[in-house]
Amino acid sequence: MTDLTFAPVDIDGVLKLIPPTASAIPMVFDSPHSGLTIPDFDRSISDDLIRLASDTYVDDLFDFAPSIGAPLLVAEFPRSFLDLNRSLMDVDLEMVEGDWPHPVRDNASARRGMGLTWRYAWGDTPMHDRKLTVKELEDRIDTYWRPYHSTLVRLLDETHRAFGKVYHVNCHSMPAVGHALSPDPAGTLRKDVVVGDYDGQASEPDFVNLVAETLSGFGYSVSLNVPFRGAELVSAYSAPAKGRHSIQIELNRKLYMDEQTRAKTSGYDDLKANLSKLGDVMRDYVLGKR
Ligand SMILES: [Zn+2]
Q1: Whether the predicted model's global pTM rises above the 0.90 cut
Q2: How far is the CA of 112 from the centre of ligand 1 (A)?
Q3: Which of 65, 121, 129, 261 is most buried, with most CB under 10 Å away?
């Protein structure tokens, strides 16, 4: 038992931290891409297009987390505006006016136009009709990226301090079929769930395998690390040898929503119930009960 507690946090339009409602366990969940609130920024496209890449409903699908004793951190803005699953070094220099005065790295996602900020909302529709000023991008980072990452780090660090270990589940969704911007070839039919551990570098294998096998047991087709192994949020703060484990779960949107209308489909409640059962299995694992 531990006296670890977290206070709720709500930064309007930026993030929400939902604390555990049961006694704490060494787990943290986060949903960085489910936000639909459009920030106030100069843009050339419709709000619907900006929301198109969002992991709509993922925050709701994983909302069992507080009931098993894990905090749930949720971003409230769309990923095309600012992608929390990117490093600050993944700035797309093509989007910035003049010289960017901070370090950058060569990054495949940024080259595809899906860096820290997205060049295109989706397809070939540009997010902006001009470049961003250095100040605009710095402000975006300070207002949206830093609070989310510092809150996540605090959750992970405090949980690790209390238990000597932490299991982080980074929650996402994916289109049913690969497309022009994705790492898999356009037209690829995807599995029901992709579990990623950064090709074995972000988590102990037993935890990843338990998650994959439990989902398979529910009847889902499951792939490990292909085509998504996870990105910044599972790689930056994980260190399995030190008891810091991160995995990514990508849910196929065809399981629970119409990708055109974005309406929930009849499969929604079944998936949500199964994820909650998965939560119970993960809880027992991290508490050493299985
Ligand atoms: Zn995502």
Answers
A1: yes
A2: 16
A3: 65
Measure 3 CA to ligand 1 centroid, in angstroms: 32
Residue entry with tokens 């929390």: 84
The alpha-carbon radius of gyration of the chain (Å, integer) is 18
* Ligand 1 centroid from CA 233, angstroms: 10
Residues 200 and 183: their CA atoms lie apart, in Å, by 19
Please give the distance, rounded to the nearest whole angstrom, from the Cα atom of residue 223 to the centre of ligand 1. Answer: 16
Q: How far is the CA of 47 from the centre of ligand 1 (A)?
A: 18
- How far is Cα 56 from Cα 73, in angstroms, rounded to an integer? 15
In whole angstroms, give the CA distance from residue 58 to residue 99: 37
Give 217 Cα–ligand 1 centroid separation in angstroms. 24
Distance of CA 209 to the CA centre of its chain: 20
Which of 166, 211, 206, 181 lies closest to 193, judged by CA?
Answer: 211
CA 142 to centroid of ligand 1, rounded, Å:
21
The model's pLDDT over 257-279, given as tens digits with 9 standing for 90+, comes to: 999 999 999 999 999 999 999 99
Q: Does the domain made of 9-286 have the CATH classification 3.40.630.40?
A: yes
